[in-house]
Amino acid sequence: MQLGALCRMIKIExxxxxxxxAYIGMVLAAGGWPGLVPFVLITVAMxxxxxxxxxxxxxxxxxxxxxNPRTKDRPLVTGEISVRDARLFLAFTALVFVLACAGxxxxxxxxxxxxxxxxxxxxxxxxxxxxxxxVLGSVLGLAPVASWLGVTPEFTITAWLFxxxxxxxxxxxxxxxxxxxxxxxxxxxxxxxxxxxGIPTALTLSTFCHVCTAIFFALAGANAGLGWGYWLVxxxxxxxxxxxxxxxxxxxxxxxxxxFFTVNGVIGVSVFGGVLMxxxx
Length: 281
Description:
The protein is an all-alpha fold. The chain has a single domain, classed as Orthogonal Bundle (Tetracycline Repressor, domain 2), CATH 1.10.357.140. It is built from 15 helices and no strands.
């Protein structure tokens, strides 16, 4: 199993969406730097669970990826990675995740099956509900909650406010991404908001999701008592969300990848930077 093919299968570059929010929960729970051991274990856990979820999704969707012209070059479809190897890799990443949780504290170990189940469940939601975008959002939304628990094993309002902010953020840009596959999803009887409600309505709902994102990120920052540095970043993040929606219209989806990866990658890293500035300034 080639490393390059493996990285393409799990889209390793998309870790930029989840890791910053894991680090947000970590530094807020610790009030700053949590120490090397928690940092390493949380990083390993987040990379492992994201890799597990992506691998599970590729296995579950193999029949659809093989039929979709947009995904026909994925390594599992072309045979660069065999189904057997993907399953072994899936089991390995699940084990690494559980071991990392065990290294953090007993609560993380006890709760470790939850992300594994939710991460796997998402792969089947397109088969029966157009709300699949929100299930995906909740998978990434668990990042700040889980990393907070990794440092301080207690549930807090701030972590849950970031959970809802991330959930709506991911759901919003996943709706945009799903607009590429409207015809295919309808032909395969798969569900998404663009396929079920049409692209214009889906774009409106995506905008609503990102309005909710801005509100929840503001509430989280206020609840955490973050200083002016956070708000100095929050405003441009909101502006970036607005700009993201200006890139796409029902009649022109040519810049959807720019809106999906470039803008949202910057947003994730920026919010983490804003939290750091809010803590130290």
